[in-house]
Amino acid sequence: MIPYGRQFIDEEDIEAVVEVLKSDFITQGPKVKEFEDKLARYCGAKYCVVFNSGTSALLGAYYACGISEGDEVITSPITFVATTNMILVLRAKPVFVDVEPDTGNINSELIEGAITDKTKAIVPVHYAGHPVDMEKIRSVADRYGLRVIEDACHALGAEYKGSKVGSCEHSDAAVFSFHPVKHITTGEGGAVLTNDEDIYQKLLLIRNHGINREKFMYEPDGDWYYEVQALGFNFRLTDIQASLGISQLKKLDRFVRRRREIANYYANELGENPFFDLPVEKPYTLHSYHLYPVRLKDIYADIKREIVKKLREEGIGVQVHYIPVYRHPLYRELGYHNLLLPNAENFYKRVFTLPIYPSMKEEELKLVVGACKDAEVFGV
Known about the structure:
By secondary structure, this protein is of the alpha/beta class.
């Protein structure tokens, strides 16, 4: 089976991890700060705090941006559930806005109509690695005094109008994931980038049990003194993982180039196919292709289940990203059962993702393309 995504680990990565395993620090040591500094520099942001998963990084970003009980947060339904689950953890309410039919990104033209006096933030999701039009999002947010938190878990290495996603030029914070199928991996891991020092300090607190070892509210008892100043968690990334992240980061631009090469290969080979439409790349973006989502044409949408089954039987590990969040039982029970967003529904009805990852071989690409040109797969 050719998977839809997988990690790329080489000897340099392994040696970096082994070096840390032989050192004095394997949890919170110098490699964590080194990884943070290098990631911030790569993206063009002032601050970076790494976490033990993209999910905990999302929670950290929401907390640091002041989202709390009773707040409403506008976001996209076409995303992994972590985006909205972490809003629920803070007892806030996700408010879903419909998506663009071609990119699957939140439709910025519809956001203003969803704003109420309870709205606290907008969380655009850069679906599949295609950046959202962030200037439009920021403009709306500024008019209403809202926070903007980018769920950039798909988009490390992508660019918006010439700047790296994660620079936070148009947002208060940006969140990345380092799961093995993402652009770089630390096994599990995540990060929040920001240009706001107050957000940065709050991120440090929530990551480490709310502990502050430097800026005290009371007179210290001695050199050993520290203070718990907020409710926090153990969301720490280890030096073992950070060393892998540092090594992977060196290869990130190469990984993105390779993903774009594969996307171009698909575009050249499948551009005239009669079965589905290919992803788009808006002129203001550089797509980093975490996913390669294709959309079935009208006459094939009703048989997506059969098409996906046949492709998998041929060894092509296609996947569906994503079931709209509001369709899940948890959200139906919370009152989203009557929600209908036509573009999100249509996108889900049609979409499936083809394999794309840096180590894909030419023969694997040919197998994928061959299966996608096979009329029998599509019931013709």
